Amino acid sequence: MRLLADLILLxxxxxxxxxxxxxxxxxxxxxxxxxxxxxxxxxxxxxxxGIGLLYPQWWSxxxxxxxMILVTNPIGSSTIARALLMAGVKPWKGSEQANSGRERx
Length: 105
Fold this sequence. Notes:
Blueprint: H1 2-25, H2 29-54, H3 59-86, H4 93-100
Helix pairs in contact: 1-2, 2-3
């Protein structure tokens, strides 16, 4: 059980690292929000699962934390993205071309 918990903790740390890397590497704020929300949510849930396997007496607390992460992360990221859009922050030009479905010469 210890080996499985360690592997899940390592997986969670890897997803969290990839989320942090996405925050640095993505070209605009909308892509950064997506990278941060999806990867870090999965990383945090994996970390909670690994901790739960190591300390079974903490399951009730960890489930509440996981529920709060699952509820607040998507709501927070969509609210931030909507506020940025309403403030006039434009998406990266490359993402507009990809979304339009046509190539410009």
